[in-house]
C-alpha cells in the first residue's frame, strides 16, 4: 500500500475515535504534508522519534524566544542558557511523547505497519 492510502486510512481511523482533528493532524504535520513530506500522523510515530522531534523543535523555538526577550539582558553564562534550553526541551518532549503514547493506548490504535 502506498503512503497516501495508508495515511488516509490512518486519518479515517483517528477521526472515528472522536478526537479533535487538530490533535491527530496538527498544523505542523499539515504543513509538512503540504510540502510533500511523507510523515506519519503523530499517533503513529515511534516513541523515540516523537521525543526527539518535540524536544528539538521546542528547545530551539523556546530558547530563541527567551534569548531575544530575556536572556540577552541577564548576562547568564552560555552553559546556563544551554542547560535551561535542554531541560525545557526534554521536559516538553517527554510530556508530548507520553501524551501521544497514552492516547495511542487509550484509543487502541494499531501500529503503523498494521494500518
Walk me through this protein's architecture.
This protein has 115 residues and is an all-alpha fold. 72% of the residues lie in helices and 0% in strands. The chain has helices at 3-16, 21-24, 27-34, 47-74, 78-106. The N and C termini lie close together (10 Å). The relative contact order is 0.16.
**Mean pLDDT metric:** 92
- Quaternary state, please? single chain
Radius of gyration: 17 Å
Q: In DSSP terms, counting alpha (H) and pi (I) runs of 4 or more, how many helices? A: 5
According to DSSP, the number of beta strands is: 0
Question: Uncertain spans, ≥5 residues at pLDDT below 50?
Answer: none
Structural class: mainly alpha
The ordered H/E elements are HHHHH
Helix content: over 70%
From the N-terminal CA to the C-terminal CA, the straight-line distance is: 10 Å
Describe the global form. elongated
Q: What fraction strand?
A: under 5%
- Largest beta-sheet details: none
List keywords for this structure.
transmembrane helix, transmembrane, 115 residues, membrane, mainly alpha, DUF6404
In short:
The chain crosses the membrane at residues 44-69, 81-102. With 115 residues, this protein is an all-alpha fold.
Provide the fold topology.
Layout: H1 3-16, H2 21-24, H3 27-34, H4 47-74, H5 78-106
Helix pairs in contact: 4-5
